[in-house]
Amino acid sequence: MVLLDGARLSKEIKEQIRHEAAQLKERRGITPTLSVILVGDDPASHTYVKMKERACKEVGFHSIVHTMPADITQNDIEETITSMNQDPNVDGILVQLPLPPHIDTTRILELIDPAKDVDGFHPYNFGRLVQGLETFAPCTPLGVMELLRAYGIDPKGLDACVVGASNIVGKPMAALLLNAFASVDVCHIYTKDLQSHTKRADLLVVGVGKPKLIGPEMVKEGAIVIDIGINRLPDGRLVGDVDFEGVSQKASYITPVPGGVGPMTIAMLLTNTIKAARKRRG
Ligand code: GUN
Predict the structure, then answer these.
(1) 45 C-alpha to center of ligand 1: Å?
(2) Do 105 and 144 have their domain in common?
(3) Whether residue 118 has its Cβ less than 6 Å from ligand 1
(4) 88, 100, 90, 121: which is closest to 41 by C-alpha?
Protein backbone atom coordinates (compact mmCIF):
# COMPACT_ATOMS: atom_id res chain seq x y z
CA MET A 1 0.00 0.00 0.00
CA VAL A 2 1.27 3.45 -0.94
CA LEU A 3 0.24 6.50 1.05
CA LEU A 4 -0.72 9.44 -1.21
CA ASP A 5 1.12 12.18 0.66
CA GLY A 6 -0.74 15.41 -0.06
CA ALA A 7 1.09 17.27 2.68
CA ARG A 8 4.47 16.66 1.01
CA LEU A 9 3.21 17.31 -2.53
CA SER A 10 1.44 20.52 -1.50
CA LYS A 11 4.72 21.79 0.01
CA GLU A 12 6.49 21.18 -3.31
CA ILE A 13 3.73 22.96 -5.23
CA LYS A 14 3.80 25.92 -2.82
CA GLU A 15 7.58 26.17 -3.19
CA GLN A 16 7.18 26.30 -6.98
CA ILE A 17 4.42 28.94 -6.73
CA ARG A 18 6.52 31.01 -4.32
CA HIS A 19 9.28 31.01 -6.92
CA GLU A 20 6.87 31.99 -9.73
CA ALA A 21 5.29 34.74 -7.62
CA ALA A 22 8.72 36.20 -6.88
CA GLN A 23 9.44 36.28 -10.62
CA LEU A 24 6.10 37.97 -11.37
CA LYS A 25 6.90 40.57 -8.75
CA GLU A 26 10.45 41.13 -9.97
CA ARG A 27 9.75 41.23 -13.72
CA ARG A 28 6.29 42.79 -13.81
CA GLY A 29 5.69 44.31 -10.39
CA ILE A 30 2.64 42.05 -9.94
CA THR A 31 1.61 40.59 -6.57
CA PRO A 32 -1.15 38.00 -7.05
CA THR A 33 -4.06 39.04 -4.82
CA LEU A 34 -6.85 36.95 -3.35
CA SER A 35 -9.92 38.64 -1.89
CA VAL A 36 -12.03 36.53 0.48
CA ILE A 37 -15.54 37.01 1.86
CA LEU A 38 -16.22 35.27 5.17
CA VAL A 39 -19.75 35.57 6.58
CA GLY A 40 -20.82 34.63 10.11
CA ASP A 41 -18.95 32.70 12.75
CA ASP A 42 -18.88 29.07 11.67
CA PRO A 43 -15.64 27.85 13.33
CA ALA A 44 -14.71 25.51 10.47
CA SER A 45 -15.09 28.33 7.90
CA HIS A 46 -12.91 30.61 10.03
CA THR A 47 -10.27 27.89 10.28
CA TYR A 48 -10.30 27.29 6.51
CA VAL A 49 -10.02 31.00 5.74
CA LYS A 50 -7.09 31.36 8.17
CA MET A 51 -5.35 28.46 6.42
CA LYS A 52 -5.94 30.11 3.03
CA GLU A 53 -4.58 33.45 4.32
CA ARG A 54 -1.50 31.75 5.77
CA ALA A 55 -0.87 29.89 2.50
CA CYS A 56 -1.08 33.18 0.54
CA LYS A 57 1.46 34.73 2.88
CA GLU A 58 3.80 31.74 2.54
CA VAL A 59 4.01 32.11 -1.24
CA GLY A 60 4.13 35.91 -1.32
CA PHE A 61 0.55 36.60 -2.44
CA HIS A 62 -1.51 39.43 -1.04
CA SER A 63 -4.77 38.37 0.63
CA ILE A 64 -7.65 40.49 1.89
CA VAL A 65 -10.35 38.98 4.10
CA HIS A 66 -13.72 40.74 4.36
CA THR A 67 -15.33 39.41 7.52
CA MET A 68 -19.08 40.05 7.67
CA PRO A 69 -21.67 39.41 10.39
CA ALA A 70 -24.13 36.53 10.00
CA ASP A 71 -27.04 39.00 9.55
CA ILE A 72 -25.41 40.83 6.61
CA THR A 73 -27.80 41.53 3.73
CA GLN A 74 -27.67 40.01 0.27
CA ASN A 75 -27.20 43.49 -1.12
CA ASP A 76 -24.16 44.25 1.07
CA ILE A 77 -22.40 41.06 -0.06
CA GLU A 78 -23.29 41.79 -3.69
CA GLU A 79 -21.89 45.32 -3.46
CA THR A 80 -18.66 43.97 -2.01
CA ILE A 81 -18.33 41.47 -4.86
CA THR A 82 -19.06 44.14 -7.45
CA SER A 83 -16.27 46.30 -6.07
CA MET A 84 -13.89 43.29 -6.09
CA ASN A 85 -14.86 42.58 -9.70
CA GLN A 86 -13.98 46.17 -10.60
CA ASP A 87 -10.74 46.36 -8.60
CA PRO A 88 -7.87 45.84 -11.08
CA ASN A 89 -5.58 44.68 -8.27
CA VAL A 90 -7.82 41.76 -7.25
CA ASP A 91 -7.00 38.57 -9.15
CA GLY A 92 -9.07 36.01 -7.26
CA ILE A 93 -12.40 36.22 -5.40
CA LEU A 94 -13.42 33.52 -2.93
CA VAL A 95 -16.69 33.45 -1.00
CA GLN A 96 -16.31 30.93 1.81
CA LEU A 97 -19.29 28.56 1.90
CA PRO A 98 -21.72 27.84 3.41
CA LEU A 99 -23.46 31.24 3.55
CA PRO A 100 -26.30 31.85 6.03
CA PRO A 101 -29.71 30.49 4.93
CA HIS A 102 -31.19 33.95 4.20
CA ILE A 103 -28.54 34.54 1.52
CA ASP A 104 -29.11 33.37 -2.06
CA THR A 105 -25.78 31.59 -2.64
CA THR A 106 -26.40 30.99 -6.35
CA ARG A 107 -26.88 34.70 -7.02
CA ILE A 108 -23.69 35.48 -5.08
CA LEU A 109 -21.60 32.93 -6.99
CA GLU A 110 -23.06 34.07 -10.33
CA LEU A 111 -22.04 37.65 -9.63
CA ILE A 112 -18.32 36.81 -9.34
CA ASP A 113 -16.37 37.71 -12.49
CA PRO A 114 -15.60 34.28 -14.05
CA ALA A 115 -12.04 35.50 -14.74
CA LYS A 116 -11.56 35.93 -10.96
CA ASP A 117 -13.46 32.79 -9.95
CA VAL A 118 -10.53 30.88 -8.39
CA ASP A 119 -12.92 28.45 -6.64
CA GLY A 120 -14.42 27.47 -10.01
CA PHE A 121 -17.98 27.67 -8.65
CA HIS A 122 -19.44 30.04 -11.27
CA PRO A 123 -21.81 28.17 -13.63
CA TYR A 124 -19.82 29.53 -16.59
CA ASN A 125 -16.63 27.88 -15.36
CA PHE A 126 -18.47 24.76 -14.25
CA GLY A 127 -20.08 24.47 -17.70
CA ARG A 128 -16.68 24.81 -19.35
CA LEU A 129 -15.34 22.12 -17.02
CA VAL A 130 -18.09 19.71 -18.05
CA GLN A 131 -17.33 20.44 -21.71
CA GLY A 132 -13.63 19.69 -21.13
CA LEU A 133 -12.61 23.27 -21.92
CA GLU A 134 -9.92 25.40 -20.27
CA THR A 135 -11.39 26.80 -17.04
CA PHE A 136 -10.93 27.23 -13.30
CA ALA A 137 -11.76 23.86 -11.75
CA PRO A 138 -12.84 23.66 -8.10
CA CYS A 139 -9.80 23.28 -5.85
CA THR A 140 -10.58 20.04 -4.01
CA PRO A 141 -11.25 17.84 -7.06
CA LEU A 142 -8.40 19.55 -8.90
CA GLY A 143 -6.15 18.65 -5.97
CA VAL A 144 -7.22 15.01 -6.26
CA MET A 145 -6.29 14.98 -9.97
CA GLU A 146 -2.91 16.54 -9.19
CA LEU A 147 -2.25 13.97 -6.45
CA LEU A 148 -3.06 11.12 -8.87
CA ARG A 149 -0.83 12.65 -11.55
CA ALA A 150 2.09 13.06 -9.14
CA TYR A 151 1.93 9.36 -8.25
CA GLY A 152 1.73 8.27 -11.89
CA ILE A 153 -1.90 7.14 -11.66
CA ASP A 154 -3.73 7.65 -14.98
CA PRO A 155 -7.54 7.45 -14.63
CA LYS A 156 -7.93 6.46 -18.30
CA GLY A 157 -9.99 3.28 -18.57
CA LEU A 158 -10.43 2.88 -14.81
CA ASP A 159 -13.81 2.19 -13.25
CA ALA A 160 -14.15 5.18 -10.94
CA CYS A 161 -16.78 5.63 -8.26
CA VAL A 162 -17.42 9.07 -6.75
CA VAL A 163 -19.42 9.00 -3.52
CA GLY A 164 -21.03 12.40 -2.91
CA ALA A 165 -22.61 14.62 -5.56
CA SER A 166 -22.14 18.15 -4.20
CA ASN A 167 -21.48 21.07 -6.54
CA ILE A 168 -18.18 21.75 -4.72
CA VAL A 169 -16.74 18.25 -4.72
CA GLY A 170 -18.61 15.29 -6.21
CA LYS A 171 -19.96 16.77 -9.46
CA PRO A 172 -16.74 18.53 -10.53
CA MET A 173 -14.75 15.44 -9.44
CA ALA A 174 -16.88 13.29 -11.73
CA ALA A 175 -16.40 15.77 -14.60
CA LEU A 176 -12.60 15.83 -14.18
CA LEU A 177 -12.41 12.03 -14.07
CA LEU A 178 -14.66 11.73 -17.13
CA ASN A 179 -12.48 14.26 -18.95
CA ALA A 180 -9.52 12.01 -18.06
CA PHE A 181 -11.40 9.06 -19.67
CA ALA A 182 -12.38 7.13 -16.54
CA SER A 183 -15.81 5.44 -16.50
CA VAL A 184 -17.53 7.33 -13.73
CA ASP A 185 -20.26 6.17 -11.39
CA VAL A 186 -21.64 8.89 -9.06
CA CYS A 187 -23.38 7.85 -5.81
CA HIS A 188 -25.35 9.94 -3.33
CA ILE A 189 -27.80 9.63 -0.44
CA TYR A 190 -30.49 8.06 -2.65
CA THR A 191 -28.19 5.39 -4.03
CA LYS A 192 -29.94 2.06 -3.33
CA ASP A 193 -27.00 -0.22 -2.68
CA LEU A 194 -23.84 1.84 -2.14
CA GLN A 195 -21.58 -1.17 -1.66
CA SER A 196 -22.52 -2.66 -5.04
CA HIS A 197 -21.09 0.52 -6.62
CA THR A 198 -18.02 1.09 -4.42
CA LYS A 199 -16.96 -2.57 -4.58
CA ARG A 200 -16.57 -2.41 -8.38
CA ALA A 201 -14.34 0.64 -8.37
CA ASP A 202 -10.66 0.65 -9.33
CA LEU A 203 -10.64 4.26 -8.15
CA LEU A 204 -12.89 5.20 -5.25
CA VAL A 205 -13.29 8.89 -4.34
CA VAL A 206 -15.36 9.71 -1.26
CA GLY A 207 -16.48 13.19 -0.21
CA VAL A 208 -19.56 13.04 1.96
CA GLY A 209 -18.71 14.03 5.53
CA LYS A 210 -19.59 10.78 7.34
CA PRO A 211 -16.90 9.10 9.44
CA LYS A 212 -16.31 5.43 8.54
CA LEU A 213 -18.90 5.49 5.73
CA ILE A 214 -16.57 3.26 3.71
CA GLY A 215 -15.38 0.07 5.41
CA PRO A 216 -13.06 -2.59 3.96
CA GLU A 217 -15.99 -4.79 2.90
CA MET A 218 -17.01 -2.02 0.45
CA VAL A 219 -13.66 -1.77 -1.32
CA LYS A 220 -12.18 -3.86 -4.13
CA GLU A 221 -8.81 -5.50 -3.45
CA GLY A 222 -6.07 -3.24 -4.86
CA ALA A 223 -8.32 -0.18 -5.31
CA ILE A 224 -7.02 3.39 -5.23
CA VAL A 225 -8.91 5.15 -2.43
CA ILE A 226 -9.21 8.93 -2.13
CA ASP A 227 -10.78 10.28 1.04
CA ILE A 228 -12.02 13.87 0.78
CA GLY A 229 -13.97 13.82 4.07
CA ILE A 230 -12.78 15.91 7.00
CA ASN A 231 -14.77 15.12 10.14
CA ARG A 232 -14.03 16.13 13.70
CA LEU A 233 -14.94 13.41 16.21
CA PRO A 234 -16.27 14.29 19.69
CA ASP A 235 -12.80 13.46 21.11
CA GLY A 236 -11.27 16.13 18.82
CA ARG A 237 -9.63 13.76 16.33
CA LEU A 238 -9.86 14.53 12.59
CA VAL A 239 -10.94 11.59 10.44
CA GLY A 240 -12.12 11.12 6.87
CA ASP A 241 -15.09 9.21 5.45
CA VAL A 242 -13.04 6.04 5.00
CA ASP A 243 -12.19 3.58 7.77
CA PHE A 244 -8.47 4.03 7.16
CA GLU A 245 -7.26 1.16 9.33
CA GLY A 246 -9.43 -1.43 7.61
CA VAL A 247 -9.40 -0.07 4.06
CA SER A 248 -5.64 0.51 3.94
CA GLN A 249 -5.23 -3.31 4.23
CA LYS A 250 -6.95 -3.70 0.84
CA ALA A 251 -6.05 -0.53 -1.08
CA SER A 252 -3.08 -0.18 -3.42
CA TYR A 253 -2.99 3.59 -2.79
CA ILE A 254 -4.82 5.58 -0.13
CA THR A 255 -4.91 9.17 1.13
CA PRO A 256 -4.50 9.80 4.86
CA VAL A 257 -6.72 12.27 6.76
CA PRO A 258 -5.30 14.69 7.66
CA GLY A 259 -2.41 15.13 5.22
CA GLY A 260 -4.05 13.82 2.04
CA VAL A 261 -6.50 15.84 -0.02
CA GLY A 262 -6.87 18.77 2.44
CA PRO A 263 -3.46 20.37 1.83
CA MET A 264 -3.90 19.83 -1.92
CA THR A 265 -7.07 21.97 -1.88
CA ILE A 266 -5.10 24.93 -0.58
CA ALA A 267 -2.26 24.33 -3.04
CA MET A 268 -4.78 24.38 -5.92
CA LEU A 269 -6.30 27.63 -4.66
CA LEU A 270 -2.84 29.18 -4.96
CA THR A 271 -2.39 27.59 -8.39
CA ASN A 272 -5.72 29.00 -9.58
CA THR A 273 -4.91 32.43 -8.12
CA ILE A 274 -1.54 32.78 -9.88
CA LYS A 275 -3.18 31.48 -13.09
CA ALA A 276 -5.87 34.17 -12.77
CA ALA A 277 -3.20 36.83 -12.18
CA ARG A 278 -1.29 35.76 -15.31
CA LYS A 279 -4.38 35.50 -17.51
CA ARG A 280 -5.95 38.74 -16.41
CA ARG A 281 -2.81 40.80 -16.55
CA GLY A 282 -1.64 39.38 -19.87
N1 GUN B 1 -16.57 25.45 1.84
C2 GUN B 1 -16.16 24.17 1.87
N3 GUN B 1 -15.23 23.97 0.91
C4 GUN B 1 -15.06 25.14 0.29
C5 GUN B 1 -14.24 25.57 -0.80
O6 GUN B 1 -13.47 24.81 -1.40
N7 GUN B 1 -14.35 26.86 -1.15
C8 GUN B 1 -15.20 27.70 -0.53
N9 GUN B 1 -15.26 28.94 -0.96
N10 GUN B 1 -15.98 27.35 0.46
C11 GUN B 1 -15.91 26.07 0.86
Answers:
(1) 8
(2) no
(3) no
(4) 100
What spacing in Å lies between the alpha carbon of 35 and ligand 1's midpoint?
14
Asked if residue 282 has pLDDT above 90, the reply is no
Residue nearest ligand 1's atom 11 by CA: 97
* Structural element, H or E, at residue 130: helix 123-130
Is ligand 1 within 6 A of the CB of residue 35? no
Q: Tell me which residues are annotated as active site.
A: 52, 96, 119
Asked if 206 and 144 sit in the same domain, the reply is: yes
Which helix (H) or strand (E) segment is 12 a member of? helix 6-28
Summarize pLDDT for 4-36 with one digit per residue, the tens.
999 999 999 999 999 999 999 999 999 999 999
Whether 43 and 78 share a structural domain: yes
Q: What is the atom index within ligand 1 of the atom nearest the CA of 45?
A: 1
Domain housing 164? 139-262
Tell me which residue has its CA closest to atom 7 in ligand 1: 96
- Residues 258 and 143 reside in one and the same domain: yes
pLDDT at 132: 98
pLDDT at 264 over 90: yes
